[in-house]
Amino acid sequence: MLELGIALLHSGAMFRNVAELDEAVAVLKAAEKHPDGSADRSLVLTSLGNARLERLLRSAGRSQAELDTVIADHMEAMHRRVPGSQNALVAEGDYGLALFRAYELSRNREYLDSSVGPVRRAAEQTPAGHARKAERLSNLVSVLVTLFEWDGGPAMLDEAIRTGREAVATANPRHAQHAPCLFGLASGLFRRGELHGTLLDFDEAAVLSGQVVEATPPGHTYRAMHLIPGTRRRCAIRLPPRSWRRQPPTLRGPQACSVMTIRTGQ
Q1: What mean pLDDT is predicted for residues 71-86?
Q2: Gap between the Cα atoms of 113 and 22, Å rounded
Q3: Which span out of 31-40, 49-58, 243-252 was modeled with the highest average pLDDT?
Q4: What is each CA distance from 80 to 41, 42, 44, 67, 116, in whole angstroms?
Q5: CA-to-CA distance for 156 and 142, rounded, in angstroms?
Q6: Residue 132 counted as domain residue
Q7: Please, which residues have CB within 8 angstroms of residue 161's CB and are 6 or more apart in sequence?
Q8: Domain finish residue from 84, 106, 125
Q9: For FRET with 95, which of 9, 122, 151, 264 sits at 20 to 30 Å CA-CA?
Q10: Are residues 105 and 161 in the same domain?
Q11: Residue with the larger pLDDT of the pair 127 and 252
Q12: Counting Cβ atoms within 10 Å, is residue 65 exposed (0-12), middle (13-18) or buried (19+)?
């Protein structure tokens, strides 16, 4: 039953099929209520939280109660995970990402602050060569850039850029996360260029933006969104440095599009 729920979740998320996501939620709820002996309870709850969140992201009417249920599923998964087990990092990484998504939906700073720890631990503890290493590093970049947009701390931005470089080095051009990793690094460099007026950062951001567009096939959901930052970076190269305004950030950069796909797996 768990395998069926995960398959429906992946298919519904990939093809933006709400009916399949409804079915995934129903199957995973049944798996949670009537678990078989072989199922990892934390993985069932993580998958259920992911399915609810994917459905919520595609729903016209969103409620705080639904978002609370998503976070509750992930918190219960964290409570039931077995430290050191195969799925422990899945629970932690997806919990942190769910909190970040909750921030994007609600603009509630508490969700953002709570997401940092689990997203960072998942990125750091995932071993080199793991299939989700680049994805988790890229998720950390998005969280760090968003924190910078709130607080204006240069150290946070520098960490985002270092992490972004590691993510790009981890994801080869054929990797599913190659374009998102490039996009996150370009966003961090552009923010630093804005902060300090450094032309080298703007230049590198512009080059990376072009690579993002090349790596995003025509007709892809995010191709148009990826074209916009490249244009902004090329236009911004001649701008003087500006002091960072400490205010709640607008949705932009990697946060402006859902490049981070929540999925369940090792």
Answers
A1: 95
A2: 30
A3: 49-58
A4: 7, 5, 10, 20, 21
A5: 11
A6: no
A7: 185, 188, 189, 192
A8: 125
A9: 151
A10: no
A11: 127
A12: exposed
Q: What whole-number distance in Å separates Cα of residue 21 and Cα of residue 12?
A: 5
Task: Count CB-CB contacts under 10 A for residue 4.
Answer: 14
Do residues 121 and 162 share a domain?
no
The residue count of the chain comes to 266
Show the tokens assigned to 214. Answer: 């090349």
Q: Has residue 93 been placed in a domain?
A: yes
d(CA 244, CA 152) in angstroms, rounded, equals 6
Q: Give the pTM.
A: 0.85
Residue 105 neighbours by CB under 8 Å, 6+ apart: 56, 57, 62, 67
CB 212 within 8 A of CB 168: no
The Cα–Cα gap between 67 and 64 comes to 5
Short-list 201, 198, 176, CA closest to 187 = 201
Alpha-carbon span 218 to 85, nearest angstrom: 40
Q: Which residue has the higher pLDDT, 9 or 255?
A: 9
113-140: b (≥16 Cβ within 10 Å) or e? ebbbebbbbbbeebeeeeebbbbbbbbb
User: Measured between alpha carbons, how far is 11 from 22 in angstroms, rounded to an integer?
Assistant: 12
Query: H or E segment at 104?
Result: helix 88-106
Please give the single-letter amino acid code of residue 181. C
Same domain flag for 89 and 41: yes
What confidence tens digit (pLDDT) does each residue in 136-164 have? 999 999 999 999 999 999 999 999 999 99
The whole-number pLDDT of residue 237 equals 45
pLDDT, tens only, 223-257: 545 555 555 555 554 444 544 444 556 544 444 43
CA within 13 Å, CB half, 132: 22
Residue range(s) defining the domain that contains residue 11: 1-125
